[in-house]
From TrEMBL, chain A:
Keyword ATP-binding: yes
Ranges for domain ABC transporter: 2-233
Descriptive protein name: ABC transporter related protein
InterPro entries: AAA+_ATPase, ABC_branched_ATPase_LivF/BraG, ABC_transporter-like_ATP-bd, ABC_transporter-like_CS, BCAA_Transport_ATP-bd_LivF, P-loop_NTPase
Single GO molecular function: ATP hydrolysis activity
Family annotation (Pfam families): ABC_tran
Family: Belongs to the ABC transporter superfamily.
Biological-process GO terms, alphabetical: L-amino acid transport
Statement: the UniProt record of this protein carries the keyword Transmembrane: no
Keywords recorded for this protein, A-Z: Amino-acid transport, ATP-binding, Nucleotide-binding, Transport
PROSITE patterns: ABC_TRANSPORTER_1, ABC_TRANSPORTER_2
SUPFAM superfamilies: P-loop containing nucleoside triphosphate hydrolases
UniProtKB/TrEMBL annotation, chain B:
Transmembrane segments: 12-30, 61-81, 88-109, 115-137, 149-170, 203-228, 240-266, 278-304
Any one GO cellular component localisation term in the record: plasma membrane
Pfam families attached to this UniProt entry: BPD_transp_2 (PF02653)
Official protein name in the record: ABC-type transporter, integral membrane subunit
A GO molecular-function annotation: branched-chain amino acid transmembrane transporter activity
InterPro entries: ABC_transp_permease (IPR001851), LivM-like (IPR043428)
This protein's record includes keyword Transmembrane helix: yes
Species, as recorded: Pelosinus fermentans JBW45
Localization: Cell membrane
Membrane topology value: Multi-pass membrane protein
Keywords, ordered alphabetically: Cell membrane, Membrane, Transmembrane, Transmembrane helix
Length: 235, 326
């Protein structure tokens, strides 16, 4: 569904991504893991068109989308849950969700809104509350809900577990799996490697701007280098 | 009656309304979180375009003022496409610079009469009183002279324009467009990944602000019948900004209240003669210390709404029961 070919990008003189080849097959969950500063978030930003690639191509459903403006990428069926959630804190929960559907002209927006309230009942309870007054976990749910309101075929999640309690993290990962089972492809960037590899089908390991390892998620989880670097010793 | 209709008060009311329109113009750009100080520049373009069109080309007043707005809008396109990429203080500095450039150009052009400015611009009040006189009311009615009738008509027309702009701004804030503006103001990054074309909307808000400022400039030109480059200097840009700072920029009522207060305040403080500017400054400093969000914010409106709707609850219920009976 999504393919990155020989992608390079950076911020001025800093080359954050050097040569990235990455494939996300339709219907799967793909995890992108790596240490801080490896370039995970940059990959997400380049896919969404927030940063222009210096080299290489991005294909979504066979269409070259590299260098296209973000709002057009959203209308093609990609949606990002940004790192740190980026909730519109002075708007209500309902308004936040409606913002996610701002490009849609169809009349199923209300139905989708109900579906999101079914998935996250707490959001319906708090729909008149300002986004900024929610707890971290609720904000993450709101960010995911907002991204789903644009009806994406591919959902990009940038560190959904950041700063959340273990129980809430488990909830979020369950929801990600549910969303995937309902037919949305997921590309997940995570620090929580154990969980990320558990739910993913494929995984890519990013190290200083390069893909150092990729394959089936379970094989990656068993790889001694990954075990040592991210999962706490070889044992 | 005679007291209220004296030319000084009439003039003050027209200035209040024009400043309120300028308040709306800065509110429109601020509603996307863009701090533009170019409104004085756009105002001068509107004023000079409208004045020159009536003076030199004989264009009727009602056509010249919107054309002034259009000219400001056109210039906003040229200046806006590169500058709306800038954020925060950088945009403020760039637009402030733009305003000064416009002023210097006007100062040096022959057609704008340089530093002397344009005088004997066709006056709206005179035109309207002539119209009223032609209507057969040359003697005035009920002790109100035809000149006063003209001034009243000017105020009515200005109030109508202001009313329309307020209505437009209120409708805007509850529309898809207004929600997009608010999202950009809240978090540009989040807005972008939600699929909002931030560049387009920011530019649109910039255009709307410029157009309204241009209209205000045109109206001001035809009310004061004299304009000079000094009227639209740095001082004016800051004054327009203060409307939004004092009144608040969350809701359209904020800059309007700011405009009213900041137009009336210097007049009220006239008794203080040389201390006037000092008191004026002190009020602004106190304001910043105790109410940095401005006098009216969204929460103040919500508070008043609940206060006002709590008492007539019984009356409201009455209405509901009445509606159910066929």
């Amino acid at each position: 569904m999504l393919q990155l070919q020989q992608l390079a990008a950076g911020y001025g003189n800093i080359k954050a991504l050097k040569n990235i080849d990455l494939t996300v097959p339709a219907g799967s969950i793909v995890s992108l893991i790596g240490a801080n500063g490896a370039g995970k978030t940059t990959v997400m930003k380049v896919i969404m068109g927030l940063i222009k690639p210096e080299f290489g191509q991005i294909f979504f459903k066979g269409q070259n989308i590299s260098g296209i403006a973000s709002h057009k990428i959203v209308s093609l069926g990609l949606s990002l849950v940004p790192e740190g959630r980026s909730i519109l804190s002075r708007m209500t929960v309902l308004e936040n969700l409606e913002m996610g559907a701002c490009q849609r002209q169809d009349n199923e927006v209300q139905a989708d809104l109900q579906r999101i309230f079914q998935r996250f009942p707490i959001l319906e309870e708090r729909k008149a509350q300002l986004g900024g007054t929610l707890s971290g976990g609720q904000q993450q749910m709101l960010a995911i809900g907002r991204a789903l309101m644009s009806r994406p075929e591919l959902l990009l999640l940038d560190e959904p577990s950041m700063g959340l309690a273990p129980l809430v993290v488990a909830d979020i990962f369950k929801v990600i799996q549910e969303i995937n089972q309902e037919g949305t492809t997921v590309l997940l960037v995570e620090q929580n490697v154990r969980q990320a590899l558990k739910i993913a089908k494929y995984a890519f390991v990013l190290e200083t701007g390069r893909i150092s390892l990729h394959g089936q998620a379970e094989d990656i989880a068993k790889d001694p280098r990954v075990m040592e670097a991210y999962l706490g010793g070889k044992k | 009656m005679e007291f209220l209709l004296n030319p000084y008060y009439m003039q003050l009311i027209t200035f209040i309304i024009i400043n309120a329109i300028l308040g709306i113009s800065i509110y429109l750009t601020l509603s996307t979180g863009q701090l533009s100080l170019g409104n004085a520049g756009f105002m001068s373009v509107g004023a000079y375009t409208s004045a020159l069109l009536t003076l030199k080309a004989g264009v009727p007043l009602y056509a010249a003022v919107p054309l002034g707005g259009a000219a400001a809008c056109l210039l906003a396109a040229i200046i806006g496409i590169p500058t709306t990429r800038l954020r925060g203080i950088y945009l403020a500095i760039a637009t402030l610079g733009f305003g000064e450039v416009v002023r210097v150009i006007i100062l040096n052009l022959k057609i704008t009469n340089g530093a002397l400015g344009l005088s004997s611009i066709p006056s709206m009040g005179v035109m309207l009183s002539k119209g009223i006189a032609a209507f057969g009311l040359a003697g005035g009615i009920g002790g109100i002279s035809v000149r006063q009738l003209g001034s009243i008509a000017v105020i009515l027309i200005l109030a109508l324009i202001l009313g329309f702009l307020i209505f437009f701004a209120l409708r805007l804030s509850s529309s898809r467009l207004g929600r997009a503006f608010a999202a950009i103001k809240a978090d540009e990054h989040a807005a972008e990944v939600s699929g909002i074309d931030t560049r387009y909307y920011k530019l649109l808000a910039f255009f709307m602000g410029a157009f309204v400022a241009g209209i205000a400039g045109g109206l001001a030109a035809h009310i004061t019948f004299y304009i000079g480059p000094k009227d639209f200097a740095y001082h004016r840009a800051v004054e327009i900004l203060l409307f939004a700072v004092l009144g608040g920029s969350d809701v359209v009522w904020g800059p309007i209240l700011g405009a009213v207060l900041l137009t009336v305040l210097p007049e009220v403080l006239r008794f203080a003669t040389e201390y006037r500017e000092m008191i004026y400054g002190a009020i602004l400093v106190l304001m910043m210390a105790f109410r940095p969000q401005g006098l009216i914010s969204e929460s103040t409106l919500a508070l008043w709404r609940t206060k006002l709707t709590r008492q007539p609850k019984i009356a409201g219920q009455d209405k509901v029961t009445r509606r159910t009976t066929p």
